[in-house]
């Protein structure tokens, strides 16, 4: 049976509810696609995640609707119409058509939205496919008092009723919600079942209508098949951007920031069958990041440096590690209220992230002192994670002189000393330590001045027990 | 000078031969003698500075440390790109630098180093970027100059001894050399009149102030973490000449 038809098919006369054979008879060259319920459920979940960026309370109303409570977030986004406009824009950007309605109760909103379907043939069941319309919002019911006026004219066929019950009511002349509402409750419940009475109560606000809020999955994993195979990395930009927007919405919904991501580039099927593994690119962030602009900048830099072994067919983005990231709190005064999207997108990518994404992770380092007597082990260079904002406490203990530059390889000085005398300015400082890990040393350190005028840190190596060891240069007092 | 004359000479249309160009923002170097000769009274914030070294280990980094510390206190990051040796963290910490706001970029080739420097200069959170490079590519240095101007960062291009200095893209160029125990700073180029005589700075006084000498160290009662094993220590750290000793 035909469930949905595009404009060209409808022009040829194909309608929803027809048999496939009838459709083929009307237009022999029509292209048929199998209905994929799983993909529809995934798409609905995706849209629900988008809605979660605007409101904490969004529920699925399968097969094709999302019910979201927007009253609480209306003020933040500058009013309900603007909120709906933003949401509709984002959903349409993903290729879906959307129709939205506003009502005081969830069931009423859903009914009104469903009623906007292009009028089905008489006797058809309620719509099961996404509606095709261009209007964003046409119906807005703001108070409970307006509900009867809006809902009364809707046909009973919209509700998911038992076929017998529906036939009974139709035979009795009750075809609209308004007519059903005016019937005595007990009699209606007996004839048509409690489901109808329940739905009417919930739609008109007589009974409460709690909805199960949609919770995004604990791990983000999205596969984006590309419309055409892509040969170069530059052309992947648009697809990567879209995946990152989805990731950003999921992170916002769960209040997290990404710490590690993996982007897998899946190559064409015939190459996969021949054993070519998909290319995986891993990204690590110093601090949890959520803004799409930030994620995009880092990913683009890294992607620009990899070479594609073959053309890419699909992209898969998986979040490996996330960490809680609090949202930004806005001020109470009117001047402080800004649109949240602009605030999050305007976050500048920190310098360290940018450097790390293009150069290797080891190239950008932060220094750290260690509690060690041996000079070469008294400091560590660690990959720059997030820069700690607090200043490390400086101990008051007196510090012996230490050079600003340390040589990685000690330079033997015998020849230099024999050529011209060096002047010792400070010392000796005996450092004898490290017997426990085999790198023990016994040295006398001096601050010396070379004949050329440089101030250097030299030592005499007494490792072999005698007291007249060799002289080496270890650092420069720059 | 006659106050009336001073007032008259302060007219903006009068330029005096010894004047330097007004520098919009400058970081005080911490050395008064050097501040007096630099335009703006300190290191230029929005332009490139080139420092040519005759020797290493003469106090060249110590010259810049007070300004770096001041920038870190303001909250900016300090980035060193491709330093010739390892920056020794205990010494930097003792000299007053905040290691949490100090980033080193190392093990990168020339092109990546210049790219990193440009990124650092443009970033608003970075206050100063030092790069040790031997490139003479005028275009690359021009890009750094533009990046420094747009990011309002203090940048220094260090020229190590033995390398030829580039021909004059940077508006401020200094040459450092040792001179009888002091640091002689020759201003090769600045936005102002030429300076024939070098500025002599006694950095050892600063060194002794921040890192104190070992003889004072031994006079105090030893704290438990002190590591010196007993060795006869001269009461006063006299300068001793070190000659090659004949082996027994």
Short overview:
The complex is a heterodimer of chains A (478) and B (248). By secondary structure, chain A is of the alpha+beta class. Chain A is 30% helix and 24% strand.
Number of domains of chain B: 1
What distance separates the N and C termini of chain B?
A: 71 Å
Task: Please provide the count of β strands of chain A.
Answer: 15
The Cα radius of gyration of chain A reads 35 Å
What Rg of chain B is obtained from the alpha carbons, in whole angstroms? 21 Å
Q: What can be said about the biggest beta sheet of chain B?
A: 8 strands, mixed
Strand order of the largest sheet of chain B: 6-4-7-8-3-9-10-11
Strand order of the largest sheet of chain A: 11-15-14-13-12
Shape of chain B: globular
- The number of strands of chain B is 12
Description:
The complex is a heterodimer of chains A (478) and B (248). Chain A is α+β, with helices and mostly antiparallel strands and 478 residues long. Chain A folds into 4 domains: 1-35, no CATH class; 38-203, no CATH class; 221-357, DNA polymerase, Y-family, little finger domain (Dna Ligase, domain 1), CATH 3.30.1490.100; 405-476, no CATH class. Chain A has helices at 7-11, 20-26, 37-52, 80-93, 106-115, 147-151, 163-171, 177-182, 185-192, 194-203, 237-254, 269-273, 292-303, 340-345, 351-358, 414-419; strands at 58-61, 65-68, 100-102, 137-140, 221-230, 256-267, 279-289, 312-324, 364-369, 379-383, 405-412, 422-433, 441-449, 455-461, 470-476. In chain A, the strands form 5 sheets. Chain A has a 5-stranded antiparallel β-sheet. In chain A, strands 5-8-6-7 form a 4-stranded antiparallel β-sheet. In chain A, strands 1-2 form a two-stranded antiparallel ribbon. The termini of chain A are far apart. The relative contact order of chain A is 0.07. Chain B is an alpha/beta fold and 248 residues long. Chain B has one domain (21-209): Rossmann fold (3-Layer(aba) Sandwich), CATH 3.40.50.300. Chain B is built from 8 helices and 12 strands. In chain B, helix 5 packs parallel to helix 6. Chain B is globular. The interface between A and B is large, with 75 and 74 residues. Strand 12 (422-433) of chain A pairs antiparallel with strand 12 (240-242) of chain B.
